[in-house]
Amino acid sequence: MGTLQGVYLPIITPFQDDEIDEETYRNLIEQYLLTGISGLIPLGTTGESPTLSNDETERMTELTVSAVNGRLPVYVGVGGNCTKKVLQLLTRVERYAIQGILSVCPYYNRPSQRGIYEHFLRISEATNLSIIIYNIPYRTGVNLENETLLKLAEQRNIIGVKDSCGNLKQTAELIGQKPDGFSVLTGEDALFYTTVTHGGDGGILAAAHLRTAEFVEIFRLLQANDYQAALPRWQALSRFIPLLFQEPNPTPLKYVLHRLGLIPSHETRLPLVEISSELQRRLDNLIDSLA
Ligand SMILES: O=C(O)C1=N[C@H](C(=O)O)C[C@H](O)C1
What we know:
By secondary structure, the protein is α/β, with parallel strands linked by helices. The chain has helices spanning about 20-35, 55-70, 85-95, 115-125, 135-140, 145-150, 170-175, 190-195, 210-225, 225-235, 240-245, 250-260, 275-285, 285-290, and strands spanning about 5-10, 15, 20, 40, 75, 100-105, 130-135, 160-165, 185, 200-205.
């Protein structure tokens, strides 16, 4: 099981007339393969996994694997709040040559710590794939406590966490206590610099669809302990991040990618709707600096 390190891209799912735009998706993958990212993560929140059917999830997995063709690791978003359904979907994506899955903590039904532990234990025991756990209490309604996560990290194939716990103290304590080979990747784009300087291993960042190579370069500088060079670059780069999350992700991001000519349509599926004209105007003012 490899260690996760660097910038991972939770790639968008482009749509045209409510269908997956496969050609655009393949072109996007070709483009991002050239940027130095460490891996691709289809079907995260940014990939709009909540609005894709299981057939579409399987198709996106197939498409990603064939387009990447072994050139980068692929971790597919497979999660849910019903353990049995997650296991069923897992058997479908396991047919393809992926490295692992990104699996969000069960949401909405608010399980206890023991329930979350058992959920991921079942998933871990059911597969040889690597598993990245996604802790995002503000979306799921439950926080995966460090004690529970560290117990899960004892499983051979639970190799890391996408940390969006929203509490720097919890993140710093986790980084201090994590076992060798277990990776902490931030899922809070604005905390990329902070997490890596505190000993984290990188990030899974929707914002890295834009200025991707610069995210990768900042990570390289931080790894080399060159904070003097990294900080001003990060301060310049990170200015646009709050705008991308001012309305539901990935609607602002898709708007920008469309304006940059990278996707023919910025369509998302309901209940996500297009961004307000006020946010469009603010993003339009930044377009030149985002290419
Ligand atoms: O899809 C993802 O993975 C990400 N989702 C987060 C979110 O929308 O909450 C943001 C992060 O950049 C990546």
